[in-house]
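5-methylcytosine-specific restriction endonuclease McrA, Nannocystis exedens. Tokens?
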Amino acid sequence: MLASWMGNPMHTLVLDPGFLPIKVISWRRALCLSFLDKVEVLASYEREVRTVSHSYPTPSVVRLLHAARPGPQVVRFSRKNVYLRDNHRCQYCGVQYSDHELTLDHVVPRVDGGKTTWTNVVTACAACNRRKGGRTPEQAGLPLRTRPARPKWTPMTLAQRLPVHDVPEAWRTWLGVASGR
Ligand SMILES: [Zn+2]
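Tokens:
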């Protein structure tokens, strides 16, 4: 069994047999695929995963050895992904902020039965969130800039939308992201 180092958000970029990036998976999954000989490892992170008897480099970029079955690729609902969907822009005042200055706002407040879903959660700056309080945009007189929706992009597009310093160095060649910033 793999010894764990929990809480590390490292991900692995997956390329199809023709070297085109297709998705992002967890390094654990990537390591499993590599043990199963389903992928070849093209690049690794410096950090190693240790088991009782061995240590393995953590895969950063892997290439599928056989074409994958096409399946639905959905973007997971998460704070970070909502920020990315909204381009880090407060959906009330329209100003762009960095992650730590942003909050998630329930358009229809939770107390009124508003769900935590792509269509009811938007990016809001702390000031707008406070101003809106537990009210709907109409009640608060704070109209939404865009109607929130589930993003149409795939986990792949997500990687391309990440700030360049969040994209692992080894991925940049494959994603066509400029280096050196
Ligand atoms: Zn705002």
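The radius of gyration is 20 Å.
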